[in-house]
Amino acid sequence: MLRVVFFGNSEGIFSNRYFAALRDVSCEVAAVVDVPPSRRTSTNALATDGQSFVEYARERRIPAFEPDRPNSPEFVESMRGLRSDLFLAVGYLNRLGQDLLAAPRLLAANFHASLLPAYRGLHPVFRTLRGGERWGGLTVHAVDPGLDTGDVLYQVRVRTRRDDSVASLYDRIIDRSVGLVGQLIADAGTGRLPRRPQPAQGASYFSSLTDEDFRLDWRRPAEELRRWICTTPGKCFFESAAGRVFVRDAEVAPGPGAYPGEVIRMGRARCTVSTGNGGLSLGRIQSGGVQNAADWFREQGLKIGAKV
Fold first, then answer.
1. Domains and CATH numbers, the chain
2. DSSP state of 104
3. pLDDT, tens only, 245-280
């Protein structure tokens, strides 16, 4: 029976769903490794669906770690002492160095939510949807000292949808690929892991998100802005005299060739703003509380022809 060390983010559904699958596989969980509290942030629905993998481990007196420096000599030595066969990482946010990668007998494998080599790095589902890709998915790959550059073991493709959010696409990706946990353990145990190098063509890498990733630029096409808002509802914003205004839903609407950012239509509940290509009809927004866009615009004295 293989001894497995699981690396993840205890506050993310992504990590916990795959760990739940690992519990149903014939293997021994030798230890779990969590990211430190300051790094437990993500775009993959920060809520656990039941018991986290750390809670599960502590209830059963399985060693649980949350190192600030996972590549420190002290932590590497503790991992060597576990005499594990396999490292399995899902949503773990720290890079594993060469000395740490040498600790498991067989290999370290990572579950990365993109079709590698595209969207290496952080927030791959967010980047997939922002990029307007027709396909997303998940890649299980061998971990090497690079960032998501190791050999591909398995890959699952999932069709994106026009109304996808990060959460909805993650859900479908997980549903389609969670069975790969058992496949990985079975193939590793028999020495039949399929491996192929990642192609050089189509590679991309992204790092951390900033405020500018969520600032609405009215010069962009309406469909692109709609996709941004749908991807992360309530996080994209524009600036106003009252402060930042966060948009929870929007739709593309006909728009004349007005100046980008100009109010071109006011309804009972919605308000349409001109963009670089078409109009964007804003529904619910948040500036303090959540309310209809048209109500907020009227409260601010913004009429047709005003600039936002």
1. 3-206 (3.40.50.170), 211-299 (3.10.25.10)
2. S
3. 999 999 999 887 789 999 999 999 999 999 999 999
